[in-house]
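Memo subject: From amino acid sequence to discrete backbone structure tokens
Keywords: amino acid chain, backbone geometry, structure tokens, three-dimensional fold.
Body of memo: The sequence and its backbone structure tokens, given next.
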Amino acid sequence: ENIKLKDVAKVELGSEFFDIYSNLDGHPSASIVLKQNYGSNANDVIKDVKAKLEEMKGNFPPGVDYKISYDVSQFLDASIEQVMHTLRDAFILVAIVVFIFLGDWRSTLIPIIAVPVSLIGTFFVIQMFGMSINLVTLFALVLAIGIVVDNAIVVIEAVHAKMEESDISPYKAVKEVMGEIAGAIIAITAVMVAVFIPISFMTGPVGTFYRQFSITMASSIVISAVVALTLTPVLAAMLLKNHHGKPKKSNIFTKALDSFNRGFDKVTGKYAAFLRKIVTRKVLTWGILVAFCVGIFVVNKALPGGFIPNEDQGTIYAIVQTPPGSTLEQTNKVSRALQKICQGVDGVESVSSLAGYEIMTEGRGSNAGTCLINLKSWNDREHNVKEIMEELEEKSKDLGATIEFFEPPAVPGFGSSGGFSMRLLDLNRTTNYQDFDKVNKAFIAELKKRKELTGVFTFFAANYPQYELVFDNNAAMQKGVSIGTAMENLNILIGSTYEQGFIRFGQFFKVYVQSSPEFRRLPSDILGLYVKNDHGEMVPYSAFMTMKKTQGPNEITRYNMYNSAAIRGLPAEGYTTADAIQVINEVAAKTLPHGYKVAWEGLSYDEAQRGNEAIYVFLVVLVFVYLVLAAQYESFIIPFAVLFSLPVGVF
């Protein structure tokens, strides 16, 4: 007679995981986290996902809908839009300044035409190098507008000067001028490129950002030089007219320009007179130079450092930690209470809560929870993310759990949150987690005393209530039971095991096997379970196993093969991540016993490891610039006149 599965087991459809409660704005939900593949474009991925969701929405059952609780593209789109506005404003301001100084619309039109041509050529180079139009490249283009217009202005000013000097046509003036200034334009371009190209060879994440910035800047400068040597002379010959020596038409614009020019000439004259007075006073000149150098050192020490500044991304992470041993229902209750508090705060659009999961280390536990707080659009709220976080901290302090609020990482996908992240490592390779827990708690207690830090916390604890199963090997051998078989059988009965899958209704279903709930309701039920021995006989676990209460960690995480505890936190108001890293290193050196150390991760790792690479690149840039200037002036001394002016600009 065939025995069917239903004769010996209860078969039912259920959730794959029962250790996570998901909720969105007070409604039960199924949370799905999507992460883009390496090399893909975030905006393209999110756009495709939204299109797919809209396509699938038509097949949802009645009463089921979807909502995106965290969309990184909103911040990216808003940031790019702001940079585009800045790009537009910079272009307009450049046009106004050029018109004021050149004095007529024909001369102004030439650089206005030359700038877009240079920028369009830069877009081609960006595509050729496999880069995208992002915040870094757009920021480079904003700066490039003011640089690429210089070459065009040099050509136009030289043509005007030549026409005024020799009273010749624009065409002849252009021919003579280009023979005189072409070398200077090439030399200036070489110097500028020598500044940006070495930056592209920096390593690490900093190098990734700087590489796109430097390539964009260098390509725009080179293209602007090509335009200045080709397109700008043609436009000057076609558009300019020789009005020098002829009376100007008197109107409000010419009067305003004349007044501006007279005022500017007076300022220039006073500046020249000042230079004539100090040019022969070497002691004063060198004293000023030394003063600026000292000022650079002092200001550099006083200014706060950092890796990448945090921006208001419109999202807040709330990490919930209930006491060790708390049930999933207790954690879910706290998460739901926090959710209600968040919904009552002005500026919050939606709140998604996950009980049993924390986003920082992507760990699971009955006492861990996460709330993803999605804020309204920047234009639709009065308070920034810092102010909203302060309000949430004040309103949630009496919920009976440790709740910390964090911003997303400054670079989406780079780390799990803003602030700093690190691991406390046990280099002793011991299994005494109670001692490790004491060291970890003492270290965090010292960190919380420092005014530079806030929100320091860890999920690691070694006081979770547990049961230890003690096997009597001799008794098991007498009963014919191997420890491996006993453990495998116990894992199936108490936990579950994936056996196989089947396809039904066009979907794949997984089949898990475990004992019925009535056989695993209490810890003592384990001793009443049976395992088959080598002779096919059923032996109770109580015959060779005992249980005792103990305490231990909820999970064991390792970092570089060492037992570790993940620690997160934020720099306090008025301090940066660089200050936080310095303080943590100081506290670690003073308080951590032998065999323990701090290891950084995420953005904090790269910030702590970046070292003095930027200084070396700066020195290489100085050497490059010096060599180019020495070749241009055919002198090893004259370039120092340019280089010695750098301290003033850096200060």
User: Anything to note?
Assistant: The chain has a mean pLDDT of 84.
